[in-house]
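Entry, Tuesday afternoon. Goal for today is a structural model of the target with pyridoxal-5'-phosphate bound, before we commit to ordering more compound. Inputs were pasted exactly as handed over by J.K., no edits. I checked the ligand SMILES twice against the vendor sheet because last time a stereocentre got dropped in transcription.
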Amino acid sequence: MNQYIEETKKGLVHTYNRFPVVLEKGEGVYLYDTDGKKYLDFAAGIAVCGLGYGNQELNQALKAQIDCLTHTSNLYYNTACGRAATALRRISGMDRVFFTNSGAEAIEGALKAARKYAWKKGTGRYEFIAMEHSFHGRSIGAVSVTGSEAYRTPFEPLLPGVKFAEFNNLDSVKAQLTDKTCGIILEALQGEGGINRGTQEFMEGIRKLCDQEGILMICDEIQCGMGRTGEMFAWQSYGTKPDIMAMAKAIGSGLPVGAFAMTEAVAEYSLEPGDHGTTYGGNPLACAAVAKTVEIFEREEIVSHVRETGAYLTERLGKLAAETDEILDCRGIGLIQGMKMKRPVGEIIHAALEKGLLVISARDNVLRLLPPLIIEKEHIDEMIEKLKSVL
Ligand SMILES: *Cc1c(COP(=O)(O)O)cnc(C)c1O
């Protein structure tokens, strides 16, 4: 194992503090390292591997696509892109989709789409209101709307005209509103930011504000979307359909793919030929992954499975919190859960790793749980036992 670690460390820009584990293979909700040690996975590659590992139907579809065609560029149509777009439109209620290669790129596109909308309407609006403790990715545009100074400061000056408001505080959002505001970008449930759920009042308030002002509501569903909250997309539980939404992570089950989508009302005044593009976006392989992922989600009723297992997870975590004073609070819903810990969360994560349990952290000393969406109650029991032994 050390040989891979040494080589990797030497060869890459030092941007990650990786755990000293070399993962080699996955099966269901378990991962195995190069020494054959087994890990129960409650991270899912940061909310990516919703279908877990080694899904044969998905793998066969990908293999078949590889043998057929993996790249065409966007100069031509391909057989998978339309299927993937239809699938995403069906589950999101959005009308038009643009495929990207990552979440950050989906955010970039969403910001450009909003700017173009304002430009074409001739409103002179260009500012964005974003939320404190939000996370939207690492490219310059995405960092500009990310509510964390540590992520932003070294890269300033960033995109001009971005203002930050307090999440779940509508007055704070209104205080940032000007006649130049073109959109409000937010996660219905902040993942990286500490597993903070938007309140019904806040989400409705944002929707109403956008309608009143003629500005766009942009939802980042990259982490909280694709079934994780017990809805296909987190905004759906609030009934606050955004004008533009960004997706990535779980939509491709591990293939690098993202998308931004918009309503027809936005599309009518937004991006046109020549405004935006990407060489790989919408490539047949990534799109085959999206189309098959959605097909499996729908047929296997993954979302209702998340509701059921999510309720069980909530109950078990609540009980665990009552048994120990190590857990200060529990937050989250479905299979995106967090616990604010007393001890530094890094220590707990390392100890869990030793015991064969993969968990991650979020801001605010929160232990973040993002298991594959296919977990069963027995895996939750196993996780609780392991976590108990660590605490
Ligand atoms: C992961 C994430 C992103 C960025 O996605 P990348 O694929 O890493 O660029 C953006 N927004 C949210 C909410 C995320 O969780």
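The CA atoms of residues 118 and 321 lie 48 Å apart.
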